[in-house]
Design brief:
Layout: H1 4-32, H2 45-55, H3 63-74, H4 85-92, H5 96-107, E1 114-123, E2 141-145, E3 148-160, E4 165-172, H6 180-186, E5 192-196, H7 203-211, E6 214-218, H8 231-238, H9 241-252, H10 264-279, H11 291-298
Parallel strand pairs: 1-5, 5-6
Antiparallel strand pairs: 1-3, 2-3, 3-4
Length: 299
């Protein structure tokens, strides 16, 4: 269960963000001529965002059980204007853009010059139910990874050496990890050394990143000639399991992957709120080393 001081910290930070975001968002709609009548809701935007983020730290396996058995029973004083579960699911759809902006502007970590890149699959159904699956028909795609074939999406992540999220991208399951657009989008603010697995081996991607001040470092395949590498790069390359541990926490603790989605929009809400919930973890997988030892190599 969530500790009382933890949810209060999350709410205060999200509420401060919403006060700035909603004013700017309404001005943008007015300027573009798309502003519509805003109907007041019992729950404000910051309360909706806080509840969906808290779910990923609660330990509950389903959001419905969490909302009915925890929020409505134990946090009714903290959220005095709670709505029904069905109404709350409708309100979640309006939190997609605020969650995305909040994640990108407030919860991403600092680029330190040492980054790790990886992708993880997000299944939306069992392989035997692909032909009967309707929620993500035409959106999700079949893909193949080291675990075999799957139907769903790929979450591409870049994290720093402190285990903090730096950037992310969501693609259909059939998109290659070395896709030019995906790599370019992920590495917009990255510099220094970028460590990845063999799936990122590409001479074209290496040259493109190197010209932008990013050195892509991966392990070599068995049929490739060995190349000289700084000892620090070899050590950091062995620490690439850091991002794999983060993917494991995102799936098993933050539950960004499950097959109970009934709407693509709520799938995105679940993913964004899960990433935000992870950013609030007090202890993240990280590397413990003295950066002074690596300063000559990173310079």
């Amino acid at each position: 269960m969530i500790l009382s001081n933890n949810w209060l910290e999350i709410f205060c930070e999200i509420d401060d963000f919403c006060m700035e975001f909603e004013g700017e968002w309404n001005r943008t709609l007015v300027a573009s001529g798309d502003k519509k009548r805003i109907r007041s809701s019992s729950l404000c935007l910051s309360e909706v965002m806080t509840i969906v983020v808290m779910f990923h730290q609660s330990g509950y396996r389903t959001f419905k059980e969490y909302y009915i058995k925890h929020i409505r029973l134990h946090l009714c004083r903290e959220f005095p204007k709670l709505v029904s579960y069905n109404r709350f699911v409708e309100l979640m759809k309006g939190a997609v853009v605020p969650l995305l902006v909040y994640l990108q502007t407030r919860r991403f970590g600092k680029v330190t010059g040492i980054s790790f890149i990886d992708s993880t699959l997000l299944r939306v159904c069992d392989n035997h139910r692909i032909h009967n699956h309707k929620v993500f028909a035409g959106i999700a795609k079949r893909g193949k990874c080291s675990l075999g074939w799957f139907f769903g999406f790929k979450l591409h992540l870049i994290v720093n050496d402190q285990g903090e999220l730096v950037s992310f991208a969501l693609t259909p399951g059939n998109v290659d990890d070395r896709d030019r657009q995906v790599i370019a989008s992920l590495t917009q603010k990255v510099f220094g050394k970028l460590f990845g697995d063999k799936g990122y081996l590409s001479q074209d991607r290496f040259i493109e990143l190197y010209q932008r001040g990013i050195q892509l470092i991966t392990k070599l395949k068995k049929n490739m000639k060995n190349k000289l590498m700084f000892w620090t790069d070899k050590v950091l390359l062995r620490k690439r399991a850091l991002i794999e541990s983060i993917n494991d926490e995102l799936k098993n603790m933050c539950q960004i992957e499950h097959s109970r989605h009934r709407s693509p929009i709520n799938f995105v809400v679940n993913l964004l709120s899960g990433l935000i919930a992870y950013s609030f973890f007090p202890k993240k997988p990280s590397l413990n080393f003295h950066r002074e030892l690596l300063s000559p190599v990173l310079a």
